[in-house]
Write a structure and sequence with these properties.
34% helix; 337 residues; five-stranded mixed β-sheet; alpha/beta; 11 helices
């Protein structure tokens, strides 16, 4: 089999029509590849598409992602089989309490010690943890002297709780002691769940969310987005998701760039959390399809997408170029006078 090759838009289908069997990679993050992403339904990364003689047939899905899995699948490529909808965990019964936006506060008020698992139905790590968590809950349920209970929250359904507790990845565990929230170390097995709930520690609260930290980044929402940007000549806006690993890497760079221009009243480095329900319409209006996405606005009007260099140097160079342009135009006006 050929080695993995990188391919650009113009070579894409031609490469597959020339080779009997080849693995290729393509970076489609840049905005110039929007048409390709739309054509092949690329909604997340990685997305693997299968072609025969230059013709797209279907996406490679649900077969495993190791080298052995892919090689074995290529011996007899088959389209994904339709999946039977899974029964929601909350409907399966068991000893885990399933909480919602409506009953969560009352439950943790009535139970002095609660270990809560925030999960998503599509999360593979959650599915692996689920039987361990369920078995631990069954053991604790059978102990007459156990004061602790295990509970679960589907964060994709109960979005108010997910936002309130800054759930940015799955699975996430939170411990509630007399209604107070605490961070939890990495727990994955039946034994570790039981040991924790029988002798819980109370570590310091987790680091605050980005928008709760004191930085020069302006955190915007759908209700103040336009009005705030209209007051700034130049604004670079980062649209992000708290759970996104790429966003987490970029945040320190973007924050440092914001600090570099904090005294310039014409400049704003702003951020929008697209996961928050109140911002979802805004992110849709701004055509945000991936995280992070950077847009440059001039007095509140979209001017261009920034996708060059997501580092402190890249951001500061971009903004300095804008300001240098302002100074040049101002100098020409003075000469004309």
């Amino acid at each position: 089999m050929d080695k993995v090759r990188a391919s650009a838009g113009g070579e894409w289908t031609g490469l597959f029509s020339l080779c009997s069997q080849v693995l290729a990679g393509m970076n489609v993050y840049s905005s110039e590849f929007e048409n390709i992403k739309e054509e092949y339904s690329v909604r997340g990364y990685p997305t693997i598409c299968y072609f025969e003689k230059g013709r797209f047939l279907f996406q490679y899905d649900s077969y495993g992602s190791t080298a052995e899995d892919i090689v074995e699948w290529l011996k007899n490529p088959q389209p994904p089989q339709p999946q039977v909808p899974e029964t929601p965990w909350a409907d399966e019964g068991g000893s885990v309490y399933h909480l919602t936006d409506e009953d969560f506060d009352q439950f943790v008020k009535e139970h002095s010690s609660v270990l809560v698992l925030f999960h998503a139905p599509w999360c593979g790590h959650c599915k692996k943890m689920k039987p361990e968590f369920e078995n631990a809950a069954e053991v604790l349920h059978g102990e007459a002297d156990s004061s602790g209970v295990l509970a679960a929250v589907d964060a994709t359904v109960n979005k108010a709780l997910a936002e309130r507790f800054h759930i940015s990845e799955f699975p996430t565990l939170k411990y509630f002691k007399n209604g107070e929230k605490y961070a939890v170390p990495v727990l994955r097995t039946k034994k570790s769940f039981i040991e924790w709930i029988q002798n819980p520690e109370s570590p310091p609260p987790p680091e605050p969310a980005w928008e709760e930290q004191q930085t020069s980044v302006v955190h915007l929402a759908g209700d103040n987005f336009r009005e705030t940007l209209k007051r700034k000549k130049h604004a670079l806006v980062m649209f992000y998701a708290p759970w996104c690993p790429h966003c987490k890497k970029v945040i320190p760079h973007f924050t440092a760039a914001a600090d570099a221009f904090k005294d310039d009243r014409k400049i704003a480095c702003a951020a929008v959390d697209c996961i928050k329900e109140k911002n979802q319409d805004l992110c849709q209006q701004e055509a945000i399809k991936a995280y992070p996405t950077f847009h440059y606005y001039h007095y509140g009007k979209f001017a261009e997408k920034y996708d060059t260099n997501p580092t402190e140097l890249g951001f500061t160079s971009f903004i300095r170029t804008l300001r240098e342009g302002d100074h040049e135009r101002l100098g020409k006006k003075k000469e004309e006078l």
